[in-house]
Amino acid sequence: MSRGKIELDMAPRASSSISSSALSVNNSSGSTPTIPLHTNQPSQTPQFITDIHSLHKFEDGLRCSLCKELMRDPVLVKTCLHRFCSNCIHKQASGGLKTCPTCNILLSKKDPFRPDPNFAAIIEKVSDF
Hints:
Layout: E1 7-9, E2 20-26, E3 34-38, H1 47-60, E4 74-77, E5 83-85, H2 86-94, E6 113-115, H3 117-127
Antiparallel strand pairs: 1-2, 2-3, 4-5, 4-6
GO molecular function, one term: chromatin binding
Pathway: Protein modification; protein ubiquitination
Protein name: RING-type E3 ubiquitin transferase
């Protein structure tokens, strides 16, 4: 077997369907074997596993970091936009809370929270599943 130059050609071939490519290997002997590469084949990781992982990550974003439950009546901290359950953050605030529990940024002295009805609607839709 002689050592020769190997070239890879990833250009689509006219004989291939749109969903596949061909790999051509040219060596010094002049032969050009072609190996079809089908891009529509399933990946090694089953799709449902990555979908479940994504769903759990999404659901974690809907949880209150204080009570660890899906947020009920979510409110935003006006200074940093972190979200919490209304009851959870108001209990903390009545106990003398001066900073956001997540990032420790100072809360505004006057009316530091605002309701987040759009986020509440998202949580309601997700909890229906």
